[in-house]
Every structure is written in structure tokens, then in C-alpha cells.
Amino acid sequence: MTDEAPDPSPAFAPSDTKMMGGLLISAPNQQDPNFLRTVVLMCQHDEKGALGLVINRIGPVPIGEVLEKLELAASADYPQPTWWGGPVGMGTGFVVWRGEVDDDEGWNLGSGVAVSPSAERLAALARDGDDFELCLGYAGWSPGQLDREIDDGGWLFTAVDPTIVFEVAQADRYRAALATLGLSPDSLWQGPADA
């Protein structure tokens, strides 16, 4: 991850994306300790870089605490934890929910999974008592960086599965994502390092 990661603002909304609506799964030879055994929900991957959200790590605070801090009214309790989305922009939040979003607000990732960095979207979902997840921070790659990491064998890719995103327990998402490829953590191995 670099500080040159793309800006998650609506200006970085989808356009000619190469890899959207999928899950990146870290391979055993993943070199970055931030991403060992992680599953990343890809929002954008194009000539500007790539942006995704780690979906299998618990964030620092419950959603309800974030809503309270932002002084957003909620018509339901939100005791579930936030997600740790990645090491970039920990002050940046992304709402993940079942639904759709306009292209200028966020990303439709297929299979009814939508993502938005909009505080207005967060407020509306909380006000209506809708189900959603809140991801703090994100994973960002500079132009070409993710392509190189994939070519080096650092990541596997599979289609987005809303069951994994919304229903499978966070601790089980890595195993569930690998299973979509017919793999398990035990079936993966890392070859010896180059001498």
C-alpha cells in the first residue's frame, strides 16, 4: 500500500474498470503483513489505481459509536463492529449494503452489493433503520501496483458473493472465499523462497 493510493471521493467513481465487483483473496506468499489472510472487496481497478475494502477484519469501534460521534439519528441499534477496511485513510468511512447507488456516489459491485463513501448515505440508512456495514479505512494501490502484485502471485480473485460479504462471520470469510475457487487454507502452499 502506498500514500499514492487513489482518492476515494466520487471523482474516483467507476469508469472503465478492469476488476470490479470481485473479491481479492490474499495468497500465502502475500508479503504485506497488513493483508495476510485477508479478503478485499474490490471497488475500483483502473488506470488511476485500485481501491478495495478488507471485509474480514474487525474495526476499532461499533457502528453505533460512529453514528453517535457524527450525531446521526438512527431508528435501530447498530451494536455490530465496524470493519477495518485497510491501512489507508482510517478517517474515511464506506457504507456497504444490499442495494444500488448512483455512479457519482459510489460503486455497484454486482449481485446487489453497493458501496458509498457518502455521509449522506450513511445518515439515510441509519435514519431508516436499514441493514448496512461500515468500513473504516481502505486498501489503495497506485497505478499498476495491484497488477504487479497479482502477477507476482500475491492475490487470487473470485466473483463477489453477497453471502460472504453479509452473512458469513468475519472469521470465516477467508475460508469461504477460497472455497468459491475450490480451495482451502490447507490446500494452499508457498514454495521455497528464491536463494
Structure commentary:
- By secondary structure, the chain is α+β, with helices and mostly antiparallel strands.
- Strands 1, 2, 3, 4, 5, 6, 7, 8, 9 and 10 form a 10-stranded mixed β-sheet that branches.
- The longest helix has 10 residues.
- The protein starts with 21 loop residues before the first strand and ends in a 16-residue tail after the last helix.
Largest sheet: 10 strands, mixed
Highest-level CATH class: Alpha Beta
Oligomeric nature of the chains: single chain
Order of helices and strands: EEEEHEEEEHEHEHH
Layout: helices, strands, pairs:
Elements lengths: L21 E5 L12 E8 L2 E6 L3 E5 H7 L11 E4 L3 E11 L8 E2 L4 E4 L2 H10 L4 E9 L3 H7 L3 E5 L2 H5 L6 H7 L16
Parallel strand pairs: 5-9
Antiparallel strand pairs: 1-2, 1-10, 2-3, 3-9, 4-5, 6-8, 6-9, 7-8
Features:
195 residues; alpha+beta; VC0467-like; ten-stranded mixed β-sheet; globular; disordered N terminus; disordered C terminus
